[in-house]
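Q: I'm building a small set of examples for a reading group on sequence design. Run inverse folding on the following structure and report the sequence directly after it, with nothing in between.
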């Protein structure tokens, strides 16, 4: 019998199986020795049915708790912007303390939400000789009082007139001699402005003509007459506090998030690996650079508070001790 040499070595089947199995065992054993946290080969090869029932139950409960708590946290967090708040309504009324004294009330929003004013016509006669400002939302000496604000004034001369200007628009001009037993009525909001006298039809201008409000000013003096009033509704949309349901939603979102993180940690611990550090160990060591940063911040805490930029809030707080309220010091000087 002749044999042909093909140049390829053929090992018996039992020899190949033994060799491949031995090499695999050596590789797995070596990798296990290199990584002490790696589960043993017996744990890898063991079927899932061989795990204790308590461990499988623990994994299932932790997985379900993580899913449910994370969904609750997401829904609670998304609902927070849509939940109601308690808004503090603020209004300005004039005259105050029964006298016709100017009131300074500059608004950060510049214009109020609405303005209602009633002025008896007999008060207009007090200004016919010299003329003057009957009612204004800006200082009378301001050159742009009629351009940006509400200005009701009486012109002097042989034929004095009552003129009401709102945002550079003359909405009423009547001779003083025709104003008897009436009331000047002014109604302004974000949809329209109405200016007129109680005994005739008013002039209505559609659109937003809300005047800039720096305060209530007049050239009248003495005690406040009956029927004279100015009511201003201020824009206090940001002066709010959360309601009970909003606070509950915040607490639920935080607690549910913490519960989800704890559940995920329990799931990670079931693979037999050691728990990883949340922060590197070197981050907990205090170095000279850390001391430099902290020292610089402490030094700037005292230096920066006296500057015009970083000391903005600090100066406002100091001005509030004398003004009686928290004011914008660099704009209104706490007055």
């Amino acid at each position: 019998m002749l044999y042909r040499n093909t140049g390829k070595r053929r090992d018996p089947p039992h020899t190949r199986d033994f060799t491949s199995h031995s090499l695999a065992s050596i590789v797995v054993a070596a990798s296990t020795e290199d990584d002490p946290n790696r589960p043993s080969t017996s744990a890898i090869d063991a079927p899932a049915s061989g795990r204790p029932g308590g461990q499988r139950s623990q994994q299932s409960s932790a997985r379900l708790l993580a899913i449910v708590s994370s969904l609750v946290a997401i829904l609670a967090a998304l609902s927070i912007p849509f939940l109601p708040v308690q808004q503090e309504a603020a209004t300005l009324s004039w005259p105050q303390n029964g006298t016709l004294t100017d009131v300074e009330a500059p608004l950060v929003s510049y214009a109020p939400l609405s303005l209602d004013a009633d002025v008896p016509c007999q008060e207009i006669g007090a200004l016919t000789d010299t003329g003057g400002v009957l009612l204004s939302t800006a200082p009378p000496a301001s050159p742009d009082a009629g351009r940006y604000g509400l200005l009701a004034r009486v012109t002097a001369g042989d034929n004095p007139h009552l003129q009401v200007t709102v945002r550079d628009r003359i909405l009423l001009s009547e001779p003083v001699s025709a104003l008897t037993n009436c009331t000047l009525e002014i109604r302004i909001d974000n949809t329209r402005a109405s200016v007129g006298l109680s005994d005739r039809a008013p002039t209505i201008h559609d659109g937003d003509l809300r005047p800039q409000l720096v305060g209530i000013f007049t050239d009248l003096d003495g005690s406040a007459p009956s029927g004279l009033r100015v009511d201003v509704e201020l824009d206090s949309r940001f002066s709010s506090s959360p309601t009970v349901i909003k606070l509950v939603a915040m607490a639920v979102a935080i607690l549910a998030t913490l519960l989800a993180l704890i559940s995920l940690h329990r799931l990670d611990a079931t693979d037999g690996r050691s728990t990883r550090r949340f922060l590197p160990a070197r981050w907990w060591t205090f170095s000279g650079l850390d001391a430099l940063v902290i020292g610089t911040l402490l030094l700037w805490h005292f230096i920066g508070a006296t500057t015009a930029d970083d000391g903005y809030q600090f100066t406002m707080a100091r001005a509030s001790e004398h003004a009686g309220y928290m004011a914008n010091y660099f704009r209104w000087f706490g007055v």
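The CA atoms of residues 67 and 134 lie 68 Å apart.
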